Amino acid sequence: MAGAAIVSVEQRRPNLRFPFPPRFAGRLAGRTIVAMGRRAKYLLADLDNGDVLIMHLGMSGSFRVIDDGNEKTPGAFHHERSKIEAHDHVVLHLSNGRAVIYNDPRRFGFMDLVPRAELSVHPLFAKIGIEPLGNALNGAVLAQAFAGKKAPLKAALLDQTIIAGLGNIYVCEALHRAGLSPKREARTLARKDGRPTPRAEALAGIIREVLEEAIAAGGSSLRDHRLTDGSLGYFQHTFRVYDREGEPCPSPGCTGIVKRLVQSGRSTFYCSKCQK
Fold first, then answer.
1. Are the C-beta atoms of residues 171 and 160 closer than 8 Å to each other?
2. pLDDT digits over 208-255, tens only?
3. Domain limits of the chain?
């Protein structure tokens, strides 16, 4: 898509999860895609007129690529994605001869068009926290965000207004590596003067470490998560505690057993012996 012009757009229904923006197809037609990017779980296509096409896949959305009548979607999906034409809701016809088709059986995804200059204050993005793999995440940021918070550390880390896209699995794994209890009060990572504790500094680095390992492994394929080339992610095979209830703690020298508890409606897996 990057570098190609959008020749025409087929918008086959008025809405997905939300209504399409006014004159959606007409505003895209003739525009060149300058760059592709991401913010949290949103896909972003920067256009040559300063607008950004925002795309969110929801639960069942996916793209496929057609070139001269033949499918050219990279790779082969382990579980076949939907190709039922009734669920093909948007088709982008590009100047390079390809068609990019958005298919979404449940229609939980959505698209929007927003000026790039207004993206940071748009309701979808205004309250999104820092990227966990960006340079901004460090102990000082965690300490500032958690200062005075009595909420459990697990809940604070899942707060998307603090850190964007840090999910349940990776919070469990990071807390175990850091030796921090998910029940610990978040404020304990900040000193009284607001400076980060050594544990806050360590946790920031461990979060990055866990995510980088997960990316290298292709993510965690628990149900139907797939890479863009259709292959599976394999980080789930290196889980230390997530979904390991009742198993021995893998920390060297620890004789604890992995436990499960529910926090804010989500399963938390941890070792009460080595996570304090």
1. no
2. 999 988 877 665 444 444 445 555 444 445 788 998 999 999 999 999
3. 6-121, 139-271
